[in-house]
Specification:
12 helices; Nucleotidyltransferase, domain 5; six-stranded mixed sheet; alpha+beta
Amino acid sequence: MLNNFFGLFSHDIGIDLGTTHTFVLVLGKGIVIREPSFVARHKKTKKILAIGTEAKKMMGKTPENIEALRPLRHGVIADFDATEAMLHHYIREVHQSGGMIPKVPRPRVVVGVPSGVTEVERRAVQDAALNAGARQAFLIEEPMAAAIGVGLPINNPTGLFICDIGGGTTEMAIISLGGIVLNRSLRIAGDEMDEAVINFIRLKHSLLIGLPTAEEVKISLGSASPPTGGKQERQMVIRGRDLEKGLPRSLKVTMSEIREALAPVINQIVGNLSELLEETPPELTSDIVTRGLVLCGGGALIEGLDKFIADELKLPVWVADDPMTAVVRGCGKVLEDPSLLNKVKIAGGLK
């Protein structure tokens, strides 16, 4: 009864609690928050100073008494208090934008988590959501959420192949009859691509750059195969510290260099996709060869990645529409359908 009362004043929300970005969807309104997963706080008092974009701008620029951090690592909670503060902030923000502001918003929340998380890691996410104000918190595995978000027929007796390349993890799964038949959760994703760019530029050009610059380079110049259709190789100027002289220096980098830097990480992901296919039952394999692989997550936006994977695996590959939001859209769809939620949830309950 009390839960029904809280439900009158609360918006049910789906959350993709990602390593690099957090997306929040409000039932009936769509995606209302797209923010980097960053928190800035005072080191001694633990007072939260900024969350999201404002906190990300502080990265690498803070004085000694302030820390700007990402509360999640490889898709799991690394700093419980910071994660709880971030979730609490977004739950309050969603309800403030809704006009009527309940004193204590108590929404139902569905959160996408990596398929490889342990029971303890699942519990941490659930507790963080409940402590942040949710009256019910359900968890669903990210590849399943992404498949639902993309609109794949997960309940059919056909094999579906999906790969979600996020910031902290790469989730790949074979889905049939509303369940995951086989899956892999790799802690190799966007973060490792950023590190690969930093290491490549340091070793080849003796220039030290920070993570924000590496991420910008990856987004602007990242590719898995050379441009086609007469397109030119792009280039951009980056700035960093010369490791020999210790002075600031500018450097022009090209697409081909960044492609070389990203190749080892991309090859690892493709290698795991290939191994998962080898383990797949023959009847499902025939479906997958026909239907192909669906790519989602921020990594799916890397230029030419779909073509590269298609050439390597010898099957059709297509990138989902708005691939970064596939998981949160799936969380929203299961909130609308209680029977589907009961079928795909891996945990859930009341506070």
